[in-house]
Amino acid sequence: MLTALALLPITAPAASAAGARHVLLISVDGMHQADLVAYAAGHPNSAMAGLLARGTAYRSASTPVPSDSFPGLIGQLTGGDPAATGIYYDATYNHRLLPAGTTDCSGARPGATVNLTEDLDRDQSRLDAGQGLTGLPDSVLSMTGTPQTLLNPAGLPVDPRTCRPVLPHEYLKVDTVFEVARRAGLRTAWSDKHPAYEILNGPSGGGIQDLFTPEINSTAPADTGDWTSDNAATQQYDAYKAQAVLNEIDGFDHSGTHRVGTPAIFGLNFQSVSTAQKLPLSGGRPGGYLPGGTAPGPVLTSALDFVDTRIGAFVTELRRRHLDRTTAIILSAKHGQSPTDPGALTRVDDGKLLDGLNAAWKAAHPGAGDLVVQATDDDAMLLWLADRSPAATDFAKRYLLAQNGTGTDRDGAPKAFTDSGLRQVYAGADAARYFGVRPGDDRVPDLFGVVQYGVVYTGGKKKIAEHGGVAPDDRAVPLVVSGPGIGRRTISAPVATTQIAPTILRQLGLEPRSLQAVRIEGTQVLPGLG
């Protein structure tokens, strides 16, 4: 339930300074600010160039840290960093909750993995996450708008106070823009990549009336892997979500079958750019960027063109429905991707590093179990430890910074690494201070490792970039706001993507401080919009 802090009076929406009645939020996952600038310059008649020509662009926008999808999007929709939201990644650990599947909570030992990924689906192999639709994939628009019904409760951590599974929305500490809009009587919708994104409903559980979440990690047609294994498949997947948004612009629910009115807050994420940045090859063509790391290669070029075409369709449909003068469009990204320079890539097998760390700990502490209880490593290292004492966290830090070895480059050739690929390590109380929470916080990583530029933790050769870290490639994302009453300008002062949340409410004539995280962190509306 929402706390009293969240229940500030919400008046009915008045006409905002900008006159917006709808806000369409678009996240192009993986996209960098430099990508947007270069694309618009090379495609002056493109939809993205049009947003820049008509709107306010923020040249120095940064995502939260860690730069993962969950904290990135949740920051955009709550106004808070992980310290306020409690969300550090999609797969984390909580030292207070009980393990998934616990049914007898009396005397159960606390400590649980919190896995808010595709693993929660009733059936991960299906695009509908186990709903049982016939005619997939093209029937996926008939998927439910309440995907919390598609989650497997047995995969959720258990609250020791109630001995009941904790749903994703219950795990979020603060309310969302969707909840504020709902309290003001406005309609809400969103489209994303897993049913676990029901976390965006917020603590009330009812923030989003129409949440469309086809499972991206399900089996794609012709058993070619999941929808991220080939960029053409990712584009096909994204096209379903884009059609859902078009249906919503037209006043229907995501399926296009029930007339409900155009939402006040709605939008989607695109995965196509992210896949194109990660894949070494797709369709026989190289993924990522060309040597030097500035110009997109052929797969990434195709993905950018695809996204631009879909954004153009949104703009055209808004104009056709005479909604363009009352709709603000916000273009950004949950996260960037690193490294852009293919020559900088060093793949490091984190599994071997962690096996070594656990073995060293047990050798030094006979009878002890593994030290690492949860590791989430992409292009940052987040570790949660069974022993949280200063001695244990320091042991982990010293061990990792003493490990040198051999990884691989983009082509799979051997490439040396030092210090486990890490540039800096925050452990124990230092990690808590880094994230701005109290030492001993139930959720904060016990160790956060900042990688040397170009390091990606993977034991294979299937990806050439990742996110989650602190490099500019991870965090420097586009941010453009275009719509009624918004002038064309470029703002160079640093801003955060968490400022999107209060800006959405301001555009709709709602009070930005209605959001808990905005009040906790003092998050400001984006400058220069009125």
UniProtKB/TrEMBL annotation:
Pfam families, sorted: Phosphodiest
Signal peptide segment: 1-17
InterPro entries, sorted: Alkaline_phosphatase_core_sf, Phosphodiest/P_Trfase
Keywords: Signal
Alphabetized Gene3D superfamilies for the sequence: Alkaline Phosphatase, subunit A (3.40.720.10)
Keyword Signal applies: yes
UniProt superkingdom: Bacteria
Presence of the UniProt keyword Signal in the record: yes
Protein's name in the database: Type I phosphodiesterase/nucleotide pyrophosphatase
Provenance organism: Amycolatopsis vancoresmycina DSM 44592
